[in-house]
Specification:
CATH superfamily of one domain: Thiolase/Chalcone synthase
CATH class of one domain: Alpha Beta
Distance between the termini: 17 Å
Shape: globular
Order of helices and strands: EEHEHEHEHHHHEHEHEHHHEE
Strand content: 15-25%
Radius of gyration: 20 Å
InterPro entries: Thiolase (IPR002155), Thiolase-like (IPR016039), Thiolase_C (IPR020617), Thiolase_CS (IPR020613), Thiolase_N (IPR020616)
Keywords: Acyltransferase, Transferase
CATH topology of one domain: Peroxisomal Thiolase, Chain A, domain 1
Family: Belongs to the thiolase-like superfamily. Thiolase family.
Structural class: alpha/beta
Largest sheet: 10 strands, mixed
GO molecular function: acyltransferase activity, transferring groups other than amino-acyl groups
CATH architecture of one domain: 3-Layer(aba) Sandwich
Pfam families: Thiolase_C, Thiolase_N
Length: 382
Amino acid sequence: MAEAYIVGAVRTPVGTKKGALAGVHSADLGAHVLKSLVERTGIDPSAVEDVIMGCVMQVGMQTLDIARTAWLSAGLPESVPGVTIDRQCGSSQQSIHFAAQGVLSGTQDLVIAAGVENMAAVPMGASVPFTADGAVAGFPYGEGWGERYGKQEISQFRGAELMAEKWGLSREDLEAFALESNIRAGKAIEAGYFDREIAPIAGVERDQCARPDTTLEKMAGLKPLREGGVITAAVSSQIAVGASALLIASEEAVRTHGLTPRARIHTLALAGSDPVYMLTGPIPATEKALKKSGLKMDDIDVTEINEAFAPVVLGWQKELGADLAKVNPNGGAIALGHPLGATGGILMAKLLHELERTGGRYGLQTMCEGGGQANATIIERL
């Protein structure tokens, strides 16, 4: 059976919406991680067969197939093509899936999976059109969609509130989780756990978003994002800037190019879920991945699940029975930021390096995505 290996994984530091990375062109952010990946792995860049880059808001500086423009901006061979994909927040996790599938199919040997998003320069929602009455123009409110779901609000913020209600999560529960995320992130940054995976840029060497000095008292003083709700900015992922890139290689490429595989892609899974709840997809995606892999949750040494909102992780944990000590051990997007299209690759870089740091064998990555979807990926450290 063919294998797909992760040979390299690199990311930028994750910057704040007003920090030093905010002024970096998205193509240059992508170029930086692509060039860094080539340098770190020692691969001949002309041997790369495709660059698959996730990006959600494909407007402004992030349009015109940013996978291609980022590769060219890095000064890399023009013979290598690129394609940009959008699976919402899971875009660069999907780029890993597509790259792995190309290798597993035997049709490709070396593929780069990447992601980029500058949410400071291209705001969230920039590519979402609205009608005069405020409805999202992309939803077909007539036949099909309209008959099934009606003309109701469809948003991640409402979905987070619905999840909190469904799983009986109080504001205090969510804030305790968010505090722990920030504490873990602060400790990890201070200990240098992320240093090996980060390629410094624009004078920034470490992640910028973490708030390890926050307190439950500070969180309690914030207004909810919706009147009468439990979701506040403190329990939500932060608007951020970043990029990520991974090199996926076949056994033949490993031999031919003298590469060192660091992990193998063990299992790939996808799931759709209720588009109104929107954020519950990691639950069925994880269940599918575990079933396909023959593993149990207890077999997973490290899990990275995107902290779009605290209820996403806590609702998932209640359904899967996961040990939260092994979930986002170095903090998550509540503390470290969520640069949309880049986050999937960022989480995979964190997962790989944490398995290497701790000696763990199996790692799981999953994340909720717009429209009620999720990816789940299991890797095995080598």
